[in-house]
Amino acid sequence: MTYTDHRTMRRALCREIAGTIGLLTDEHDFRAMRPYRSFIFDDHGTYLEQVEAVLRTRALQGTHTTLALFDPEEYAEFCAQRGLDPDSHTSRTRFTAELAVTGATVPYKGQPLTDLLPALVDEGVRQATWEYATMLLARLGACPACGEDLGREAFARASQLIVRILDTAGPGSRHLVCSVSGPPETLIAVLHADDNGGRLELDDAEILEFTTVLAVGLATGSPGGLVMRTTVLGTPDRVHGWRLRAHGLEPLTAGEVFDAYCTDVESGDLIPPESNVDYCEPPDLGEGPDPTHHH
Length: 295
Hints:
The protein is of the alpha+beta class. Helix content is 45%, strand content 20%. The chain is built from nine helices and ten strands. It has helices at residues 2-15, 27-33, 44-60, 72-82, 89-102, 113-140, 150-167, 204-220, 254-261; strands at residues 19-23, 65-69, 105-107, 173-180, 187-196, 199-202, 224-231, 237-245, 248-251, 277-279. Strands 4, 5, 6, 7, 8, 9 and 10 form a seven-stranded mixed sheet that branches. It has a three-stranded mixed sheet with strand order 1-2-3, sandwiched between helices. Strand 4 (173-180) and strand 5 form a beta hairpin.
């Protein structure tokens, strides 16, 4: 009887343990792991099928599982820094455990793996964008004239602008996109604000990333823009935007917004305008606090 009770308790405890699977999302990363003898898979498709089978089994057992983006280059660096053998499932387990805390992850909720893969890749891009933008702000250092931390000042300014943009938008759910051009690549951040009975619902991680990318544009004066699309059921969507300027935003005319939405970014060819969409001038954001760094 005691043995049965112990076994029952252990099974109950096992259901309390959350797990993380480090996933190789594409063929390139999968091939990078093939030289390790302890990595037994030789076909990416088969590997994904087996991962999905494990996910389904764990879900049927009532176990929560998270998928983490497994990067072979980061894994090799992880092992080198800690003196671990990379050709070992134990080392991969340690790396995956760290990814669960610091890496890009998405929870498994029974959806097909084909739906989870792009979501996991998108999360990885989001995190990399935020980390890179944060590094750019940190590198700005202090203003030589007044000693103010330029990155912190730009972040505060970006936060104030986002609040005013959301407050002046009127009713409806909002979809904001901010892009900042510059070497080596363009930074893009997205912010969703769902209107729940007049109360906006925002994701904290999206807010942080969006604010950081906007702050980079404000602080560096790099070319960029911010557009917002507002949706209210039963009415045309409203689209308007701003051009990024040092320390501020310059409103785009309705024609400029129309041109931006109806031009293919890569080819420059015209794209037919969407139906049931109004291209508008943005509302007045007000003067707000003066930027502190004209000098």
